[in-house]
Amino acid sequence: MTWRERLRDPTTQRWLRIAVFVAMLGIALWAPFYFTPFRVFQFTRVLIFAIAVLGLGLLTGFNGQISLGHGAFFAIGAYTAAALMEKAGWPFLLVVPVALLITFALGYGVGIPALRLHGLYLALVTLALAVVTPPILKRFSGITGGAMGLNIDIPQAPAWTGLAEDQFLYLLALVAAIAAFALARNLVDSRTGRAMIAIREDELAAETMGVDLARVKTLAFAWSAMYAGLAGVLFTWTIGFVSPESFTITLSISILAALVVGGLGSIWGALLGAAFLVYLPSVADDLNQAAPGIAFGALLIIAMYVFPGGIAGLARRLWGRLLAPPRAPAPATAGASTEEGGEP
Q1: Residues 195, 64: contact at Cβ < 8 Å?
Q2: Eight-state DSSP code of residue 146
Q3: Residues 309/80, Cβ–Cβ less than 8 Å
Q4: Which pTM does this prediction carry?
Q5: How far apart are CA 202 and CA 205, in angstroms?
Q6: Domain ranges of the chain
Q7: What is the tens place of the pLDDT at every residue in 269-287?
Q8: Which residues lie closer than 8 Å to 212 by C-beta, 6 or more apart?
């Protein structure tokens, strides 16, 4: 058995996936104790945005519904956590289920009118949601702090852990990300996940096969919004401050761009896209300090041109070529046979 045949074996592939996951988990657990606090802070942001990108991926990549408004759900999760912790004095862990329930309900509510919209029209409606969110947050200053925002106490690690603040926040984000990715994988592999993919490919065919379009679409919107809300909660814990200016339309577009760069229809592509989203501005600033926005846009265009199927799509193609059986040698031509054998 050749090495390609061994790699194509389902049992070998399963053990290889387990080995890769264990290695990645080991590196993730080791990282906060080796790198500087600033690097750990960057890693934490990658995990936070990976959850938000993953949520949008469930809606857009797997269910085929375009959204330009996920920054709004991100903001709602962030402000829910900040308001409950600052105004009501709740412990930081208790705000998580409340934020998840609120964003899930709002996502479900937005998903109902979205049933009648497709493509560009749905994108415009969700874009409007992202645009109106900051002014609404400023309007209800008694709860949100208005334009000044809200400051909260950053969660501290229990004394018995011996963890620094940056390490504790990173591990919180890591636990949340592992749970989010595991749930997303189970969802995609379930009957509902297959129904989502069927809707993405052909709504009419999916409905003919008995898929409840209304139920699956609204639930996809709700789950997607809930993921963005969870990312918003983690963002609040990490930054310790929220303001309307942190959740402009740029946030929604950046999340969508990260999804496209990471790879539509890919679970792990969300992590790659989030890393791209966090580190690209630093690279752009190094390239052009006078106009980092121009450099950022140029790098983003180049990335989309180089990786038309996303980074995850490129990895899948390379893996497919690695596993492809070797090509059979081309048959000898008549002329070559004549030359070799000496007979016509």
Answers
A1: no
A2: G
A3: no
A4: 0.86
A5: 5
A6: 8-324
A7: 888 888 888 887 776 666 6
A8: 195
124-138, 160-174, 222-236, 240-254, range with greatest mean pLDDT = 222-236
Residue 136, number of CB atoms within 10 A of its CB: 13
- How far CA 179 is from CA of 170, 175, 227, 236, in Å, comes to 14, 6, 11, 19
In the chain, the amino acid numbered 309 is: G
How far, in Å, CA of 124 to CA of 249, rounded?
Answer: 12
Secondary structure (DSSP) of 161-204: G---HHHHHHHHHHHHHHHHHHHHHHHHHSHHHHHHHHHHH-HH
Residue 208 is predicted with a pLDDT of: 84
> Using one digit for the tens of pLDDT, what is the confidence trace for 254-265?
888 888 888 887
In CATH terms, is domain 8-324 a member of 1.10.3470? Answer: yes
CA distances from 40 to 23, 257, 273 (A): 19, 24, 18
One-letter amino acid of 129? L
**DSSP string across 264-318:** TT-STHHHHHHHHHHHHHHHHHHH-SS-HHHHHHHHHHHHHHH-TTHHHHHHHHH
Q: What's the pLDDT score for residue 333?
A: 54
- In this predicted model, what pLDDT tens digit does every residue of 44-103 receive, in sequence order? 999 999 999 999 989 888 888 888 888 899 999 999 999 998 888 889 889 999 999 999
Tell me the C-alpha distance between 195 and 144, whole Å.
39
Helices (H), the chain: 3-8, 10-30, 37-56, 70-86, 95-114, 119-139, 141-144, 165-189, 191-201, 203-208, 213-239, 249-262, 269-287, 292-306, 310-323, 334-341
- Measured at the CA of 92, the angle between CA 90 and CA 96, to 5 degrees, comes to 100
Residue that has been written with the tokens 């180049």 in this structure = 302
φ, ψ at 262 (rounded to 5°): -70, -40
Cα torsion angle, 61, 51, 181, 114, sign: negative
CB of 233 within 8 A of CB of 76? no
Q: In this structure, are residues 235 and 44 in contact, taking their beta carbons and an 8 Å threshold?
A: no
Residues 6+ apart with CB under 8 A from 171: 32, 163
Which among 23-27, 42-46, 135-139, 144-148 has the top mean pLDDT?
A: 42-46
